[in-house]
Amino acid sequence: MKPAKLHYWTLGWFSMALCCWCTSDTFTQSDNHPHPWKKLYFAHHWPVTVCKMNANDCHDPPKYWTIHGLWPDRAEDCNRTWHFNVTEIKDLMSDMRHYWPDVLHSSLNRTQFWKHEWDKHGTCAATLEVLNSQKKYFGKALELYQHVDLNGCLLKAGIKPSSSYYKMTAIKEALASFYGVTPKIQCLPPEEGEEAQTIGQIEFCFTKELQLINCTAPKGESNPMQAHLKLGTEELSVCNDTLPTYYPSEVQGHK
């Protein structure tokens, strides 16, 4: 091969290799970090309301607020190859069953709810060092649950399950006074013939440094976590400030 031809062949091969390397590197980075997020939603749900939404497989729900999940905003299902392994949280099992139970399926051996939360949300939260394993993710959520102490806050404010109705503004004011931030509160809208909404979920927002912040989105910015909890035909949505609010002590028809 003549020197000139060898030069052009070598230059062409190098250019093609460089192009492939750059493409591969871009894909790898995108694949590793495809879901940037800014804050965490820490959701508590009221088991009695969850059972009201779907009573088919719900028996004797806890009478205290339990964990629904710890969710990064703008991110879901970030690593489908990082499978849930219950043995990694065996040391947390007692607290998990008490504070993060599968309300709709009461079997102590059932772990499907935790698997769902890890697959959908935990794999995204794991970009933070303090949440970068299954034990850290579930363990930190349990720590936050104790730190927030929503059950204690509501009791101190005189807000407890009752057959009487509350004003949503009173609930919001009590939470804002206690925590110094505005959480997101979701309710079941009134059914036909009813006048009151039913409180179902309260979400607290945290920065990546795990500091409490307001859940309200800045003006002009959409709230990425608008997916409502839907079970059967019923669905939670942001509570209406003008409607009376029911905080049920038991599922209708259950004793």
What does this protein look like?
It contains 7 helices and 10 strands. 36% of the residues lie in helices and 16% in strands. It starts with a helix and ends in a 9-residue tail after the last strand. A hairpin with an 8-residue loop joins strand 4 (184-188) and strand 5 (197-206). It has helices at 3-32, 47-53, 93-99, 112-125, 134-148, 150-156, 168-179; strands spanning 40-45, 66-72, 165-167, 184-188, 197-206, 212-213, 230-231, 234-235, 237-238, 244-246. The strands form 2 sheets. Strands 1, 2, 3, 4, 5, 6, 9 and 10 form an 8-stranded mixed sheet that branches. The chain has a two-stranded antiparallel ribbon with strand order 7-8. By secondary structure, the chain is an alpha+beta fold.
What does the secondary structure layout of this molecule look like, with pairings?
Elements: H1 3-32, E1 40-45, H2 47-53, E2 66-72, H3 93-99, H4 112-125, H5 134-148, H6 150-156, E3 165-167, H7 168-179, E4 184-188, E5 197-206, E6 212-213, E7 230-231, E8 234-235, E9 237-238, E10 244-246
Parallel strand pairs: 5-10
Antiparallel strand pairs: 1-2, 1-5, 3-10, 4-5, 4-9, 5-6, 7-8
Which series of helices and strands comes N to C? HEHEHHHHEHEEEEEEE
Separate helix tally: 7
Mean pLDDT: 83
**Computed CA radius of gyration, to the nearest angstrom:** 24 Å
User: What percentage of amino acids are in beta strands?
Assistant: 15-25%
Morphology: globular
Assembly state: single chain
